[in-house]
């Protein structure tokens, strides 16, 4: 049991230290390119070519399944935006679609054995700051600069510090909610894999097959958790993040 705990602790330590640096660009003292960045580049390329394929040779009346799939996806996002934000905010549909697709795919790469992009706080914080910029822009547009500043003094001037803190808490809560759910799931799953692997070793249920190692105790059990942490949770968090974005942005314009 001590061996299992020791191995699990080492695994958690690796996760806490964040994504590994893949290579460095020798500019400005060295720019570290992490696995999160590399996976992000790959996802951008895959999603780009997938969009090209789905929208290639479109017909007025769909003749191919890929056009039907593309139209269903567009209609799904448009309905989300129309329901949550209203007709006048339909211009935000492409942004919401990008959030959903990139968030979901960035989390689901964990099913391929890669480190989930959304388990990196830098990713979710960037999305949250982008949403915060849109919120602030809409508040300025609706109330003007003076009206925006006055909103912090309502209902009374003494509440200004609390209102400012509440404003800053919006992107912070969005970023940490998404990151925490995905990173927490990754930590739990990794610890379970490592602990069951150590248990297999203690019970002599570990078999080496060439370059591969089969831990009998780790077969099946982690897969059940993976369905929730890597599949269900990834899709739910993408939906929640995009929904919060729509609600905050549309509310800011009132």
Write structural notes for this entry:
69% of the residues lie in helices and 7% in strands. The protein has helices at residues 2-16, 35-54, 65-84, 93-108, 121-150, 160-202, 221-252, and strands spanning 21-25, 31-34, 206-209, 212-215. The chain has one domain. Helix 1 (2-16) packs antiparallel against helix 6 and helix 2 (35-54) crosses helix 4. The longest helix has 43 residues, at 160-202. Strands 1-2 form a two-stranded antiparallel sheet. The protein contains 7 helices and 4 strands, in the order H-E-E-H-H-H-H-H-E-E-H. With 254 residues, the chain is mainly alpha-helical. Strand 3 and strand 4 form a beta hairpin.
Quick recap of the structure?
By secondary structure, the chain is mostly helical. It is 69% helix and 7% strand. Helix 1 (2-16) packs antiparallel against helix 6 (160-202).
Shape: globular
- State the separation between the terminal residues, measured CA to CA: 58 Å
Secondary-structure element order, as H and E? HEEHHHHHEEH
* Number of spatially distinct domains: 1
Instruction: Tell me the number of strands.
Output: 4
């Amino acid at each position: 049991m001590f061996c299992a705990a020791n191995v699990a602790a080492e695994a958690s330590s690796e996760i806490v230290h964040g994504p590994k640096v893949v290579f460095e660009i020798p500019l400005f003292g060295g720019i570290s390119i992490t696995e999160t960045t590399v996976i992000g580049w790959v996802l951008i390329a895959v999603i780009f070519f997938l969009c090209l394929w789905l929208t290639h040779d479109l017909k007025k009346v769909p003749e191919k399944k890929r056009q039907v799939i593309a139209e269903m996806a567009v209609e799904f996002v448009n309905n989300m935006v129309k329901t949550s934000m209203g007709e006048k905010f339909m211009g935000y549909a492409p942004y919401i679609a990008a959030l959903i697709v990139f968030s979901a795919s960035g989390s689901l790469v964990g099913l391929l054995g890669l480190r989930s992009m959304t388990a990196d706080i830098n990713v979710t914080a960037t999305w949250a700051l982008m949403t915060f910029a849109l919120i602030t822009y809409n508040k300025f547009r609706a109330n003007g600069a003076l009206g925006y500043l006055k909103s912090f003094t309502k209902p009374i001037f003494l509440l200004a510090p609390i209102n400012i803190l509440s404003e800053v808490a919006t992107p912070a809560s969005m970023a940490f909610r998404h990151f925490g759910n995905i990173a927490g799931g990754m930590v739990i799953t990794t610890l379970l894999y490592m602990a069951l692997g150590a248990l297999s070793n203690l019970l002599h249920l570990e078999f080496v097959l060439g370059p591969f190692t089969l831990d009998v105790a780790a077969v099946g059990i982690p897969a059940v958790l993976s369905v929730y942490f890597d599949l269900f949770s990834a899709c739910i968090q993408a939906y929640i993040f995009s929904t919060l974005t729509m609600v905050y942005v549309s509310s800011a314009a009132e």
